Amino acid sequence: MLPLDQRLATHRRVTTMTLMILGLLIFLGGHSVRIFAESWRQQQIANRGQSTWKLAYSVVALIGLAIAIYGYGQTRLDPINLWFPPMGLRHAVALLMLPAFIMLVAAYVPGNAIKAKLGHPMMLAVKIWAFAHLLVNGRLSDILFFAAFLVWAILAFKAAKQRSRQQPAAPQSTSLAATLATVAIGVVAYALFAFYLHPVIIGVPVFG
């Protein structure tokens, strides 16, 4: 039998990993309704109303995200390392995250050509973010966390493209000003997060 301290450490690892996975299942599961149960979603909206659905959806998403982040943070206190990525990959991640931020902003700025061209820039941003972070994290919890988001983003993007083919949206006008503003805001948001917020919130410097 393992010593008590090793048994307690194993129990703590299992508990925190379970919390993280549970949170991911709740958060990504809620965001997967449109992928796997669009007709059920539409029925719920028809029966309960758009506002009630959005409220319930938001509450479930926030609860799941909070549990996932808490569990993920706890796993980093006692990590299980599967491999040790070379430091040079951090430069690749820093480069990949710049277009990810621009695509994220493009999902919200009206009339920009990036969204008109890509269709679903938010999901593409999540893809890049998750893939980039898989490159530089060798802990088991990191791999599970970012792989879950990557798989979800791939499936969500595919489902969204299929819906767009079935129900084509009317062409939207774009402007150079909106596109330039999207890029500028994305670059500023990237710099702010990379140089200031990432070290404070995540505890890991992007550069240096």
TrEMBL record:
Annotated localization: Membrane
Domain NnrU: 19-205
Membrane-related topology note: Multi-pass membrane protein
UniProt entry keywords in alphabetical sequence: Membrane, Transmembrane, Transmembrane helix
Pfam families, A to Z: NnrU (PF07298)
GO cellular component: membrane
Bilayer-crossing regions: 14-34, 55-72, 92-111, 143-160, 176-197
Designated name of the protein: NnrU protein
Species, as recorded: Vreelandella aquamarina
